[in-house]
Design a protein that fits this description.
By secondary structure, this protein is of the alpha/beta class. The chain has a single domain (about 5-180, about 215-240), classed as Rossmann fold, CATH 3.40.50.720. Helices cover about 45% and strands about 15% of the residues. The chain has a 7-stranded parallel beta sheet, with helices on both faces. It binds NADP nicotinamide-adenine-dinucleotide phosphate.
Amino acid sequence: MKTALVTGASRGIGRGVALRLARDGFQVVVNYARDETSAKEVVRAVEADGGSAFLAHAELGRPGAVDELARQLAERTDRLDVLVNNAAIGTSVPLEDETPENFDRLFAVNVKDLFFLTQRLLPLIPDGGRIVNITSGVTRIAFPEAVAYAMTKGAVQVFTLALAKQLGPRGITVNNVAPGIIDTDTNASWLRDNPEGAAYAASRHALNRVGEVSEIADVVAFVASDAARFVTGTTIDATGGGNL
Ligand SMILES: NC(=O)c1ccc[n+]([C@@H]2O[C@H](COP(=O)([O-])OP(=O)(O)OC[C@H]3O[C@@H](n4cnc5c(N)ncnc54)[C@H](OP(=O)(O)O)[C@@H]3O)[C@@H](O)[C@H]2O)c1
């Protein structure tokens, strides 16, 4: 059975990706940071559907987290067919209000540990494997409201480009999937039960609605599949036509 690790898979987009990849026949490693209850629920949902999944607890961005995650993975498998780097934190802070501490934390989770987790797990990824990085429409659409967050996603896109070139000869593809505004906990405070917020979010997308987790999961599933074997080093824009 092929194995896929999804970082930040207890909730939101990561959860949707984990459930979808499990349906596609992968054994899924469900990484989470704090919400053990939700992470266990994902494993239960996969198993109830006849699939296979296990938990891997590690809060990326904290010292030792990459080693800890790699250790838990190695206890269960020596092969990783798909790595989905999804876990990230996002804070909406404009330039004037940003602090060095918050900036460092954003880069530690969204960039540094994504980089070193990939470095650490690369020996487990076989020829023909897949690396999928979840970035954001904010690398294309100016987003001064959260400039440091947007910069972390830009850094990941540059990483993807270089890594795709390096790993191409082995048939390993490396791609970004860039969501638009999706209905997840991150956006709950201004999007859920707030018709004004929801209307604003919809107006940013040509498709005139907020995106669903499953719509990002479907794109990740495609990139992870054999059908996408000749797609690498690129960004799949899944923003519903954000700011067209
Ligand atoms: N939602 C959007 O509109 C949107 C738009 C563009 C891009 N994105 C990107 O999509 C990805 C997922 O976002 P989301 O909206 O699904 O987020 P979310 O609903 O807030 O869920 C975050 C998930 O990541 C985990 N996580 C958070 N910090 C972590 C850490 N340090 N180490 C390991 N796991 C961690 C959380 O685990 P716990 O449950 O344990 O806390 C949770 O499973 C992110 O890369 C985000 O930047 C989202």
